[in-house]
Every structure is written in structure tokens, then in C-alpha cells.
Amino acid sequence: MGKSKRARGRRERAGLAAAGVGASPVLRQLEVDDTTRKLLGPDVLERVWDNLWPVDCQTCGRPLGSERPALYVVDLLVRASASLHHRACRAPEWSKQPRLAGAGHLSWKTNTLMLFGVSSTGERDDRPLMVVNPNLEQVTLAATETGWDVATVPDFRRLGLRTPRRDFIVDAPVAGAQARIHRAEVSVRLEGWIDAWTGTATREVQDRIHELGGLIVGVTTAANPDDMTRYEQLFSLIDSGELLFGWIPLAPGTEDRQPLDTLTVPDSVASYLLHWGERHASIAQVLAITDHTLGESQVFDWATAQLFSEATPRWPVEWRRVGEDPAAWYLLDPLAARFYFVRRHDDGWKLLKVLARISGDGFATEREAREWAEQAVRTRTNQRVFDWSPADGTGLPGSTLKGVAG
User: Fold this and answer.
1) Is residue 188 part of a domain?
2) Residue 154 is inside which H or E element, if any?
3) Residue 403's beta-bridge partner residues?
4) pTM
């Protein structure tokens, strides 16, 4: 039976303390530079580590494995993001001039289950629950009057989620949020979060979602949903205040239940752009296209308005050139932990949400590039690319393909 990282971490720290190892056991598990140690202090550094999960390197995208990861912090004045990397890929640093890391490498996990419950009349009232960790290898920080602190809980509250009571009574449905069921998959989308979270559900859970017209979503960065195997872990997480709940209504017109082995046409399709050269490659979702005659400053204003149409970000918006892809500029959104490109193609400027990226290397054949891109789309979106076709390039060396996935 799995144990949560929090439980493992406390046990390891207790063992280290008993062995008389240093005053800061986190440093035995994480590579941290002197500036970060001073700015965060031991207590906040421990909270940062308790909200990080070493799955994939955020520079190269490969598994972090058993080696001690390096903590790289991007300081954006009032906000910051702390992420995990191979020591060989990215040295530990507190950076106010961040270098572009591999985009789209963040992992997320869900666990969809039936939560036992009893109504006020004493009758069974089980509730479907999807526990989500939306970014395993990165955590956001916010500047406070006394220094820096982990900001995931207030960030999720701004999305409409709330701290549950012990009987799991939640507030009114989260505004703008919807859930859908497609075959054995449940997906949840929150307004203000660019990605949908998906998870496999048993027929019992699906039936209950249809019966109730929705489900509970619980969001946290303080646990890996894969490790949650006992109710005690869930209650402990709720008591800590680091798990936020929301009731997500089932979208109107959601398709009727169907046999799990029935093949269906995808509910929706998305367009992806695969672009690669000798020393770079990227696969990204196409969000918008505009006139290719626009100047750079006009395009940056257009792209920023497309991404943040409802509210101006509280952090500096700065588009930076991608060194090995000179037709492209990038922007890091620290709140959603996402990279975006604007790239000038022959048929127009394209705003792209980057799923994965390689820097310093490329592909020798189109087949290799397509296989890499298809795996990235499948891993990041649970979609399958079912058609590739030539696409307009950038006028510079490199190749471009358009993929359709669903």
C-alpha cells in the first residue's frame, strides 16, 4: 500500500534528525543554492519541498530518477515559481533573469474514486471525487510582508475552490466549471485554468456522477493522487488545509452512458503544430492566428490580449526570443505553469501553447519527429494524433507539420 510523500518525508526527516544529520534535512533530498536558502528560510523551504514531486526534469523532460533534483526558482517580483531539474540540466539558482527551460514538461495526476458518505437522515450518500495534483514538479510562491511562501492554496481559491468541512459539505457549484464523461473518462475544466483534468472512472462512479449531475474535485499540490489509497490520508490532507474542494456540475448535453468497449468519434479535435530543425523541436497547440504583416510589439500585445482577456496579470508580461528558434518568442505564465510561443509563419503569426520542447538537438527524420510529437500529445492531453499534413513554415531552416488530434 502506497504512502504519501508527506508521510515519507516526515519519516525521513525524523530518521535524519535521529542520526544527527544537519539542521536542514531537506537539503539532503534537494539541491538548493545559497540565495534560495536565505530568501526562503528552512520552514518555507520545507513547505516548498512538501509540495514538489520529482517526476520529470523541467529542462529536458526526462525522468528525474533517484538522483537529488536541483531547485530552480524564477523570481517575477511579487510571484515566483520553483521547479525541479536534473543537476546536469539546470544548476540550482534563484533567478531574476530566467532562461527558457523545456516547455510542457509538467506532470499532473488524478485519482477518481467514490467517497463514502452518510446523509443527515442516516442514508448512504456516496460522492464521486476526483483528486488532482495539477503540477507535480513546480510550485508557485508569493511575496508576503515577511518574505516568500507557497501560494498554491490562495491560487486555487481564486479559481472558486474552497476548504471542505470534515463531512465534505461543499459550497455552491464552482462558477464556470464543467465536467464531462466520455466512455470511461471523466474530464473537469475550471474557468481560469487552461488545461482540463481527466481520469478514468469505474462504471459505479460514472453512474453516480450522472445521478447527482456532477462530482467533487479536490485540488492540491501537497499529495500525489496515485499514493492516496486510504481515507486516513484524505482526512489528514483536509485537516492540513491544503486540499480545496469544489462541486463541478455535469455539462448540459453530456452524452449518455455507453458500453466501455464502444468506439466513438472524438467529442472535439484540436490542431497542433510540430516544428523542428537541427537544434530544436517543439510541439504546440494552435490557439490563435493573426496577420503576418504585424510588427513584433503589435503581435505581443495581440497575444497577451488573447491569453489574458478577462484580467491583466499581476506579474510582468515579457515576451523573450527563443534563441535556437529565431522566428519565435516565448512567455512563461507562472500561475498556470505554462509556456506560450508566438511564431511568425508564412501564413501568419501563430499563438501556441507549448506541450513539449527540445533545445540543442533535433531529429534526423520526419518519422522520428512525428513519433516524439505523438507521444507528447498523448502524455499531455490524452489525445491521439490521427492526421498529419504539411504546414506553412517560417521562411527559415526547419520543417513544420500540422497535426489533428482528438
Assistant:
1) yes
2) helix 152-158
3) 272, 388
4) 0.60
Cell of 117: 458518505
Give the separation between CA 298 and CA 206, rounded to whole angstroms.
Answer: 47
Element (H, E) at 210: helix 203-212
Number of domains composing the chain:
3
| CB within 8 Å of 97: residues ≥ 6 apart | none
State whether 346 and 385 are in the same domain. Answer: yes
Same domain, 70 and 179: no
Are 230 and 344 contained in the same domain? no
pLDDT greater than 90 at residue 325: no
367 belongs to a structural domain? yes
pLDDT higher than 60, residue 136: yes
Question: What confidence tens digit (pLDDT) does each residue in 148-201 have?
Answer: 999 999 999 988 898 876 444 555 788 889 999 987 789 999 988 878 899 888
Query: 238 with 340, same domain?
Result: no
The answer to whether 378 and 400 have CB atoms below 8 angstroms apart is no
Tell me the percentage of the chain whose pLDDT exceeds 90.
38
Range of the domain at 340: 270-405
- Residue type at 397? P
